[in-house]
C-alpha cells in the first residue's frame, strides 16, 4: 500500500512538472504529448514512468542521448514522499487529500517563481479554492481565524510594497492571503516567520558571495511556500515551543 501511495504521489508531481514547464511557454498542459526538449522526439510510456524511468534511462534521452535534468525526478520523489506523509499524518482520507493538494500547489508555485520570478494567478486561486474545501475536510481553524489569516501577513506585505519599490510582488501578497485563509492566523504567522528567516538567510548568502547586489531581487515565493509547508505540519508545535521558551 505504501508503494502504491508513493507511486500515486510521484505521478501527480510528474504532471506538475508538465505544468511548470509549459505554463511559462504559453503551452497547454492538458493537450499534446510529452517530448524531449533537446531533440523534440515524442516520449513513450516507458520514458514517462515517474522516478524509475529516469533510472532505467540512466539520466539520458533514449533517442538523442542528451542528459535529462535531475530536477523533474527530484520533484517526483518529493511527490511520493508528500503522499506518504499526508497519508500517515492526517488520519482522515479527505484531510489527507486536501493537504496533498496544498503541497502540490506550493510546489508548482515555488518552481514557477524560481524559474520566472512570477507567481501566476492560477496558483493563489487554486490555494484559495483549497482553503474553502479545507474548511469542511480538515479539523482546525474556525472561519474568523481564517479571515484574520488572510490579512495578518498579506496586508503588511502590501504596505511595504507601497512604501518600498519592489519589496514584494503582487503574486507574493495574493499567495499569502490565500494561504492565510487555509491556515488561519496563528499558523500563517509561523509560516511568515519561517519564510523571512529562510529568505533572509538566502539573501545574506547572495550578498556575501557577490551573486546579487543590494538592489537586485530574488524569488521570495519558494521561501513562502516552504514556510507554509512548515506552518501546516509543525506550526502549532513551534508556537508551543516558543511560548514555553518565553
TrEMBL record:
Sorted alphabetically, which keywords does the UniProt record give?
Cell membrane, Membrane, Transmembrane, Transmembrane helix
Q: Does the keyword Lyase apply?
A: no
| Domain (Prepilin peptidase A24 N-terminal): residue spans on this chain | 8-88
Q: Which Gene3D superfamilies match?
A: 1.20.120.1220
What superkingdom does the record give? Bacteria
Q: Which residues cross the membrane?
A: 6-23, 147-168, 188-208, 220-239
The terms describing its cellular component in GO are: plasma membrane
- N-terminal signal peptide: none
How does it sit in the bilayer? Multi-pass membrane protein
What are the recorded GO MF terms, alphabetically? aspartic-type endopeptidase activity
A Pfam family (short name) is A24_N_bact
Q: Where is the Prepilin type IV endopeptidase peptidase domain?
A: 102-204
What is the annotated localization of this protein? Cell membrane
Question: Which Gene Ontology terms describe the biological processes this protein takes part in?
Answer: signal peptide processing
Q: Which family does it belong to?
A: Belongs to the peptidase A24 family.
Supply the name of the protein. Prepilin peptidase
- Species this protein is from: Wansuia hejianensis
